[in-house]
Design brief:
Pfam families: GCIP_C, GCIP_N. The protein has ten helices and no strands. The protein is flat, with a radius of gyration of 26 Å. It starts with 14 loop residues before the first helix and ends with a helix. It folds into two domains: about 120 residues, A middle domain of Talin 1, CATH 1.20.1420; about 180 residues, I/LWEQ domain, CATH 1.20.1410.10. By secondary structure, it is mostly helical. It is about 70% helix and about 0% strand. The relative contact order is 0.10.
Length: about 325
């Protein structure tokens, strides 16, 4: 499941039929997990014949899950496929864990581990009802996750930058001296000026994700191969925003190396420009949406230019 490629089926692919079949195989696997767990919940253990039947049923259920997953062609969208693959992998891994737990525990009573493993399979199987049903929904879901991570990073940095606050105050309190004169643990005035432009860039990242997500929800379609591919391109590049924001945030803590900050800011700016460019040329951005693309492009340039000016003397 994790390594393989889908077979492009000869029959025309029908998304509703796929979801129906996947739901059924996940449900059947959940029921097999219950049967297996109950059979080994109290002595005596099942007979050799019963064990053979049980293991055959479990194996068939898992093979059915994997087979239906393989129906989903790449052409339906790589973002959607990855989410379905992750859910399928969780079901298979859950069943492996449950089997291992049963094999390693004596059949005297139902162990806590066995209960937890059985519940794990149930949970993994229930996930099928929450999966996005097409690539537009999958990309919206991926963008929502990215936005959440970036929001947290922005809030954390804003909190640390509160005027006069010591970023390491919570971990390096010096009781005896009452203060620390170490340059490595606080921001100078020049640092703060540079960092306010970095914050501007981080906020532009948040706004960029918010706007692209809004456009995908309002205008995104998954009706043609071209639309599906454009959505995947957006998700792929947007996935680079959050790691780039994190790298910039880490370099903003004292002692500040202005060149490292400039380098990380430039990386983030370049990712944001790419996101805006891909959004602008895709179907999610009709002419009515071009205003915010232009505005955010300007915000990225404005903050990046200020960062360059602040760090010019370091080059």
């Amino acid at each position: 499941v994790t390594e393989g490629e889908p077979g492009e089926g000869r029959e025309p692919f029908e998304l509703p039929r796929f979801w129906d079949a996947l739901g059924q195989t996940f449900q059947a696997t959940s029921q097999e997990a219950t049967k297996l767990s109950l059979a080994f919940s109290r002595p005596p253990p099942p007979s050799a014949e019963d064990c053979r039947k049980l293991s055959e049923d479990v194996q068939n259920a898992i093979l059915a899950v994997a087979t239906v997953y393989y129906w989903l062609p790449k052409g339906q969208g790589t973002t959607l496929r990855k989410m379905v693959r992750d859910a399928t992998t969780e079901v298979v891994e859950g069943m492996i864990q449950l089997t291992d737990t049963i094999l390693s525990a004596p059949v005297e009573s139902l162990s806590q581990e066995q209960l937890i493993s059985t519940g794990g399979v149930w949970e993994a199987c229930e996930q099928v009802s929450n999966l996005p049903r097409d690539n537009q929904a999958a990309v919206a879901s991926a963008l929502t996750a990215c936005l959440g991570v970036v929001k947290d990073a922005v809030e954390e940095m804003e909190h640390a930058l509160v005027e006069g606050q010591d970023p390491y105050g919570d971990i390096m309190e010096d009781e005896e001296l009452g203060f620390r004169g170490n340059r490595d643990t606080y921001w100078s005035e020049a640092d703060r000026q540079l960092l306010s432009s970095c914050m501007g860039l981080m906020k532009a990242s948040k706004a960029c994700l918010k706007k692209v997500l809004g456009a995908v929800k309002a205008y995104g379609k998954a009706d043609s191969p071209e639309q599906i591919a454009q959505l995947d391109d957006l998700a792929d590049i947007a996935n680079e925003i959050s790691p780039s924001v994190d790298e910039l945030a880490l370099s903003m803590y004292p002692p500040v190396n202005p060149l490292a900050v400039r380098l990380n800011a430039a990386k983030l700016a370049s990712v944001l420009k790419k996101v805006l460019e891909i959004a602008k040329t895709s179907h999610v951005c009709p002419p009515s949406e071009e205003g915010w693309v232009q505005f955010l492009n300007g915000a990225v340039d404005h903050n990046m230019n200020k960062i360059k000016n602040f760090t010019q003397g370091q080059l």
